[in-house]
């Protein structure tokens, strides 16, 4: 897994019409695109990390269960390479239950300061326990304890119950590393469709979509078809 690019700090922008003209003046041409979408995504992510004032790795994750009722929420991208897009959650959460029933999901990244959007569709699978443990070890200790304390998406009588559970776990693991819970870990969305959208004047936006033709052996050497879409 390639490391996520470091985010560069910058002052928050003023959200005026004049500041947003920069994105509208940008353009996107097929000749400028990388031959595969992950490389193109990482190039855009680098620019978003430098330009966006708030959580450029935030992404909307949409799932649906067997009943077909969709649900969407914002999660954070925690890794991205030729294998796909990684995020972490509680395996008992609604998103996890829906992914167990229906492994197809979609992501949306929106970077308003750059007037850009990326849509991703594909199948989702759990990442290895070893990868989950390696990521969990990098989290702040309070976040590790919070993962243990919360039975995500389950009803809770009140915040006091959560805080008591957190305090009890802090005492339980005092002086030792907090282990990875059995009910918590990572997922990887393996894309087969990725769309890049760049805002342009007069609503004549630039849209290019990558569609997977063949995935290749071992997750490498995938072949993609690139098409321009009408805005």
How would you summarize this macromolecular structure in one to three sentences?
27% of the residues lie in helices and 32% in strands.
Written account of the structure:
The protein is an alpha+beta fold and 231 residues long. 27% of the residues lie in helices and 32% in strands. The protein is built from 6 helices and 9 strands, in the order ααββββαββαααβββ. The chain has helices at 17-25, 37-51, 94-101, 129-136, 141-149, 159-172, and strands at 58-64, 70-76, 79-81, 84-90, 104-111, 116-126, 184-198, 206-214, 223-229. The longest helix is centred in the N-terminal third of the chain and has 15 residues, at 37-51. Residues 12-23 have low confidence and may be disordered.
Detail the topology: elements first, then pairings.
Layout lengths: L16 H9 L11 H15 L6 E7 L5 E7 L2 E3 L2 E7 L3 H8 L2 E8 L4 E11 L2 H8 L4 H9 L9 H14 L11 E15 L7 E9 L8 E7 L2
Antiparallel strand pairs: 1-2, 1-5, 3-4, 4-7, 5-6, 6-7, 7-8, 8-9
- What's the order of the H and E elements? HHEEEEHEEHHHEEE
Sequence stretches where pLDDT stays below 50 over 5 or more residues? 12-23
Strand content: 25-35%
Q: What is the typical, i.e. mean, pLDDT?
A: 90
